[in-house]
């Protein structure tokens, strides 16, 4: 999934992942930050986004800038148990960098994304005009759907889950993207399937994060 932040003209941070055999998951991704400058033929490696002390899957980050040097990224996590697929955990974490992507530390757990059977879902994060952070994600356990959570303290803690959709037909849904409109409402786009439209389709929920849900 595409995730990047422009630093200025001809200067960009990119957030990607690479296969790492030390990761404790059947999908051995590990997220990292890189930088590209105009005229360069190579990316500059900035730093790993997750700590070696917790070598579980980290992939598909969604990153926002909070200040000139402070970044916050939400990312998809997975850890496989040793016994069966029932031991697998899938969730979303938030990480923070205070040096523009060179080093990162764990900030908070954002949300569970299923009960372990369906490989979870990636996040979409935006920074609202009022400074709050909002993360949306697909939820692949019953009730299947799309959810969101809001942080008022730059990702340190997260409010209650907001059910944007709770009518999913199967687990195969999610992968949201999200943007804030000029009127302050959020447009959350995702792929979906429900009883009324059983074929996979692209849908959108327009909602107001200022309203108590």
Word description of this protein:
This protein has 213 residues and is mostly beta strands. It has no helices and 15 strands. The strands form four sheets. Strands 1-2-3-4 form a four-stranded antiparallel sheet, with no helix packed on it. Strands 5-6-7-8 form a four-stranded antiparallel sheet, with no helix packed on it. A four-stranded antiparallel sheet has the order 9-10-11-12, with no helix packed on it. A hairpin with a 5-residue loop joins strand 9 and strand 10. The chain is globular and about 50 Å long. The mean pLDDT is 93.
Rg for CA atoms: 17 Å
Mean pLDDT across the residues is 93
Helix content: under 10%
Shape designation: globular
Q: Can you summarize this structure?
A:
With 213 residues, the protein is mostly beta strands. The protein contains no helices and 15 strands.
Write out key terms for the chains shown:
globular, single chain, 4-stranded antiparallel sheet, 15 strands, 213 residues, mainly beta
Layout of helices and strands, plus pairs?
Blueprint: E1 4-8, E2 11-19, E3 29-37, E4 44-48, E5 57-65, E6 71-79, E7 89-97, E8 105-112, E9 123-127, E10 133-139, E11 145-151, E12 162-165, E13 174-180, E14 186-192, E15 201-207
Antiparallel strand pairs: 1-2, 2-3, 3-4, 5-6, 6-7, 7-8, 9-10, 10-11, 11-12, 13-14, 14-15
């Amino acid at each position: 999934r595409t995730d990047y932040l422009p630093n200025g003209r001809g200067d960009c941070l990119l957030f990607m992942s690479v296969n790492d055999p030390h990761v404790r998951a059947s999908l051995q991704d590990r997220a990292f930050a890189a930088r590209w400058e105009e005229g360069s033929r190579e990316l500059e490696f900035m730093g790993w986004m997750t700590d070696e002390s917790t070598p579980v899957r980290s992939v598909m980050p969604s990153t926002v800038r909070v200040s000139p040097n402070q970044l916050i990224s939400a990312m998809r996590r997975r850890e496989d148990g040793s016994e069966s697929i029932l031991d697998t955990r899938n969730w979303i974490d938030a990480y923070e960098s205070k040096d523009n992507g060179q080093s990162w530390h764990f900030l908070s757990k954002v949300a569970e994304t299923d009960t372990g059977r369906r490989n979870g879902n990636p996040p979409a994060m935006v920074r609202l005009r009022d400074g709050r952070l909002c993360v949306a994600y697909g939820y692949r356990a019953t009730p299947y759907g799309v959810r969101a959570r809001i942080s008022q303290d730059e990702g340190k803690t997260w409010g209650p889950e907001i059910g944007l959709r709770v009518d999913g037909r199967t687990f195969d849904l999610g992968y949201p993207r999200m943007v804030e409109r000029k009127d302050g409402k959020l447009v959350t786009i995702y792929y979906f399937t429900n009883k009324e439209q059983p074929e996979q389709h692209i849908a959108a929920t327009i909602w107001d994060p200022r309203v108590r849900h």
